[in-house]
C-alpha cells in the first residue's frame, strides 16, 4: 500500500465518503479536502523530522512504535464518523505547533469551510496518517530496511518512484480527465515539501499557504 492510497485508493475512498457524510458535502469536495489535508500533515511531519533534534526524532519514532501501529487503518470509516479526538488534536498541535491556528484559519478562508471544520478534519486525519507511517515503519523493520520515514514522506511529497508516485502524479486522477491541478507537478525544486518548509521558516508567510492550496486547485 502506498501513501497515495490515503487519498485516491480504497482507504481514500472510505475517508472521502465519511467526510462527505460528516460535513454534508459532495464526494469531489471531500476528496479535495483529503488531497490538501493528508499531504499537509505529512509535510509538517517531514519538516519536523528534518528540523527537530535527536530527542524529537526519537520521540516520534517511539510514538509510531507504541501508539500508532496501523490498526486504525482497518476502521477508517468509523474514525471519520467519530470525528476529532483528544489524541488527534494533540498530534495537530504537535506537528504544526504555533502555526496550527493560522493553518486552519487560512485553509478555511480558501476552502469555504469554517476554521473549526478544518481543525476537526486535520485532527481526524492526523491519527490515520500516523497509523499509516507506523505500519510502514514496522514493515520496513521486519524487512531490514532502515530509515523508512524519510523515504516514505519524501517519495509521497516529492514524487520518488520508489514510493509509488508522488502527490503531483495523482492530482489528475482526483480531478479527472486531462485537467491538471494548478502547479500539480511537484518536483524537488518547488514541491509541497519546499512550500511547507517556506511556510514554517518564514514565520507564517501567507503566500506559502496560497501556493500550497493552489497546488490542489483546478485551473
Characterization of the model:
- This protein has a domain at 3-154.
- 67% of the residues lie in helices and 0% in strands.
- It contains eleven helices and no strands.
The main β sheet shows up as: none
Estimated share of beta-strand residues? under 5%
Distance between the termini: 30 Å
Query: What string gives the helices and strands in order?
Result: HHHHHHHHHHH
Can you count the helices? 11
User: What is the helix content?
Assistant: 55-70%
Low-confidence stretches: 159-190, 215-219
User: What would you report as the Rg, rounded to the nearest angstrom?
Assistant: 16 Å
Mean pLDDT comes to: 73
What structural category characterises the helix and strand content?
mainly alpha
Described by the principal axes of the CA atoms, the overall outline is globular
- Could you give the count of β-strands? 0
SSE blueprint and pairings:
Layout: H1 10-23, H2 27-51, H3 54-66, H4 76-82, H5 86-96, H6 100-111, H7 115-143, H8 148-158, H9 171-175, H10 192-201, H11 206-214
Helix pairs in contact: 1-2, 1-4, 2-7, 2-8, 2-10, 3-7, 5-7, 6-7, 6-11, 10-11
Summed up:
With 219 residues, the chain is an all-alpha fold. The protein has helices spanning 10-23, 27-51, 54-66, 76-82, 86-96, 100-111, 115-143, 148-158, 171-175, 192-201, 206-214.
Amino acid at each position: 500500500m502506498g501513501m497515495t492510497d490515503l487519498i485516491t485508493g480504497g482507504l481514500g475512498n472510505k475517508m472521502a465518503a465519511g467526510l462527505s457524510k460528516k460535513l454534508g458535502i459532495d464526494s469531489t469536495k471531500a476528496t479535495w479536502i483529503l488531497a490538501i489535508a493528508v499531504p499537509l500533515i505529512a509535510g509538517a511531519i517531514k519538516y519536523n523530522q528534518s528540523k527537530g533534534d535527536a530527542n524529537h526524532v526519537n520521540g516520534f519514532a517511539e510514538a509510531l512504535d507504541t501508539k500508532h501501529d496501523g490498526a486504525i487503518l482497518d476502521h477508517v470509516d468509523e474514525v471519520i464518523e467519530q470525528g476529532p479526538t483528544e489524541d488527534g488534536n494533540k498530534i495537530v498541535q504537535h506537528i504544526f505547533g504555533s502555526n496550527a491556528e493560522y493553518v486552519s484559519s487560512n485553509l478555511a478562508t480558501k476552502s469555504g469551510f469554517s476554521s473549526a471544520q478544518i481543525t476537526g478534519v486535520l485532527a481526524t486525519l492526523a491519527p490515520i496518517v500516523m497509523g499509516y507511517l507506523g505500519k510502514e515503519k514496522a514493515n520496513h523493520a521486519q524487512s531490514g530496511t532502515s530509515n523508512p520515514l524519510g523515504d516514505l514522506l519524501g517519495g509521497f511529497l516529492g514524487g520518488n518512484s520508489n514510493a509509488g508516485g508522488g502527490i503531483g502524479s495523482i492530482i489528475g486522477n482526483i480531478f479527472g480527465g486531462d485537467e491538471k491541478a494548478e502547479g500539480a507537478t511537484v518536483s524537488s525544486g518547488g514541491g509541497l515539501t519546499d512550500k511547507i518548509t517556506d511556510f514554517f521558516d518564514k514565520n507564517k508567510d501567507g503566500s506559502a499557504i496560497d501556493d500550497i492550496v493552489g497546488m490542489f486547485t483546478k485551473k
